[in-house]
Amino acid sequence: MVHPLLIDTETLDQNLGREGLVLIDVRGKAAYAFGGHIPGAVHATWHEFSDPDATAKGLLDPNPARMEQKIRALGINNGSDVVIYSNPFDNWGDEGRMFWMLEYLGCTRLRILDGGWVKWVGEKRRYDHGTVTPKPGDFRVSVNLDVMVFKEELKKLVKRPHPESYILDARSLEEYAGKEVSGIPRPGHIPSAITVPWNGFLNPDATVKDLEVIKANLEERGLHQSHELICYCTGGVRSAWLYFVLKLAGYTKARNYAGSWWEWSRDFAAPVESDVKLLHKVSGHDEARPS
Predict the structure, then answer these.
(1) Left, alpha or beta for 222 (phi > 0: left; psi -120 to 50: alpha)?
(2) What pLDDT is attached to residue 286?
(3) Helix (H, G, I), strand (E, B) or coil at 256
(4) Residue 184's pLDDT band (cuts 50, 70, 90)
(5) How many CB atoms within 10 Å of residue 272?
(6) Quick one: 6-143 is in which CATH superfamily?
(7) Nearest to 27 by CA among 105, 168, 108, 121
(8) The pLDDT value given to residue 187
(9) Domain boundaries, the chain
(10) Is 80 buried (19+), middle (13-18) or exposed (0-12) by CB count in 10 A?
(11) CATH number of the domain at 146-282, out of 3.30.70.2750, 3.40.50.300, 3.40.250.10, 2.60.40.1470?
(12) Is it the case that residue 219 has pLDDT exceeding 50?
């Protein structure tokens, strides 16, 4: 049985062209236009919805009217069934970021294609080239603050005991421990955060792992469905994928911090911790890239 927040390739294939279905390809523009895309898919990336005036790249555009117009340009109405896909092995959880962002802005009928482009082409399903320009939709933004965390709220949280809330760092173990990353003012992690790397939840065919396996993994880390879970990474992308996985696993109190380490590390009033011993232990691993 497929989770209601996922759609399998066969079901999507059978529904291509159905009225009310909007398919969003969140890969790079060249991959979409020249490498092929699922028939009817429109293209968008999370960057297009970021605050154009912010230094921290992950922050959302604070202008709801501008966001509304961009969503309408994708052909989305308030009643649209929206399916998002990417290449899960060639991004930073971008499909999760688009899912979380649209949910924050009031979309309620959202799913992600399980296995994404990897599984679709692996099964030799049909695809098109070029770009798709849909008829504009009439979507109206209705902000859902329940899925968002802002910096000042998080700063207050870390100043007190918070056994009811867990802060989850979705970055690599090296970044969490304090690895220097180009363009980031301060390395380390938010105090009390636990490491839950974003990239441990997929099967070899790019589908999401069995949910019972995921739940067991999260429970081993002390995370229970009664807890509030706050996700962050470098720019709110990997953490948005973790947010989506948490929702799949039944964690209804998950939220994402869009500014994440890009914003947090630039505020020298925001506390930072490092783990020198852990960094030394894992320092032989691959270079980390911020996202």
Answers:
(1) left
(2) 47
(3) strand
(4) very high
(5) 17
(6) Rhodanese-like domain (3.40.250.10)
(7) 121
(8) 97
(9) 6-143, 146-282
(10) buried
(11) 3.40.250.10
(12) yes
Q: Is 38 exposed, middle or buried (0-12, 13-18, 19+ CB in 10 A)?
A: buried
| pTM of the complete model | 0.95
Q: Do domains 6-143 and 146-282 have the same CATH topology?
A: yes
Question: Which contacts of 13-22 are long-range, i.e. CB under 8 A and separated by 24 or more positions?
Answer: 13/125, 13/126, 16/40, 20/77, 20/79, 20/80, 20/81, 21/80, 21/81, 21/83, 22/74, 22/75, 22/76, 22/80, 22/81, 22/82, 22/83, 22/134, 22/137
Place of tokens 């929206």: 82
- Model pLDDT, residue 1: 61
Mean pLDDT of all residues in 134-142 = 97
The percentage of the chain sitting over the pLDDT mark of 70, rounded to a whole number, equals 97
Question: What pLDDT sits at residue 275?
Answer: 92
In the chain, the amino acid numbered 209 is K
